[in-house]
């Protein structure tokens, strides 16, 4: 199983990240949050904790957010905080590639677009989250980050998820995983338009933003 092998191979890195989290801000190491998966079924997504233990319940994080620890900023920059989700994959709640699962209050089960997206198993990475890799930076420029997320970013992500599902193949999933690894290791080279151009059929439909 790929996810089990990934956990084993990455165990030294996972251990170092866990130690760093504890040394800066104490336990717990992991953060769990309810998300909506395939068919509208809720599950608990696992991440390395990147915020202080005493934080507000605000669900949107923007660049410069004071709740994020120093270690957390590094983990988030390189997407290392997402690695524990391989456990969600092992449990069958997620796949490596699929729409990123949302928190319940952002999901509308009556919306036909949401219904289409929720037919798919959620994933650790997807085209939408890769295109919006700089989401926190975009939210940091807005005076109303949560409203901007719900009204601008989330609809665009859903549209990309639907487009990707319609053109998806084994090789497109492999390409997406490779791009995710590339931009996690070298985030400074990230360009949303370049990512979209890697998927020509989707880029033409979305206007190559």
Number of H- or I-type helical stretches: 11
What is the helix content?
A: 40-55%
Broad shape: globular
Strand order in space, largest sheet: 1-2
**Beta content:** 5-15%
What composes the largest sheet?
2 strands, antiparallel
Instruction: From the alpha carbons, calculate the radius of gyration and give it in angstroms.
Output: 17 Å
Q: pLDDT average, as an integer? A: 88
Query: Please, how many domains?
Result: 1
Termini separation (Å)?
A: 36 Å
Kindly summarize this structure in a few lines.
This protein is mainly alpha-helical. The protein has eleven helices and four strands; from the N terminus they run ααββααβαβαααααα. The protein has helices at 2-9, 11-25, 70-77, 85-90, 112-117, 127-131, 135-140, 145-167, 170-185, 192-197, 200-206; strands spanning 30-36, 42-48, 95-97, 123-125.
């Amino acid at each position: 199983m790929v996810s089990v092998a990934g956990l084993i191979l990455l165990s030294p890195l996972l251990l170092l990240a866990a130690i760093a989290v504890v040394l800066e801000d104490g336990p717990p190491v992991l953060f769990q949050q309810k998300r909506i998966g395939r068919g509208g079924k809720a599950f608990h997504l696992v991440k390395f904790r990147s915020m202080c233990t005493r934080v507000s319940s605000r669900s949107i994080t923007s660049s410069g957010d004071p709740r994020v620890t120093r270690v957390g900023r590094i983990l988030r920059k390189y997407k290392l905080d997402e690695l524990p989700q391989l456990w969600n994959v092992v449990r069958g709640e997620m796949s490596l590639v699929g729409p990123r699962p949302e928190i319940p209050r952002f999901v509308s089960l009556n919306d036909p677009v949401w219904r289409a997206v929720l037919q798919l198993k959620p994933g650790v990475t997807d085209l939408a989250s890769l295109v919006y890799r700089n989401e926190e930076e975009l939210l940091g420029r807005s005076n109303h980050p949560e409203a901007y997320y719900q009204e601008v970013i989330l609809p665009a992500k859903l549209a990309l998820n639907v487009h990707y599902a319609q053109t998806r193949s084994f090789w497109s999933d492999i390409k997406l995983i490779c791009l995710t690894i590339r931009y996690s290791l070298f985030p400074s080279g990230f360009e949303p338009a370049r990512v979209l151009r890697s998927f020509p059929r989707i880029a033409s439909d979305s206007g190559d933003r």
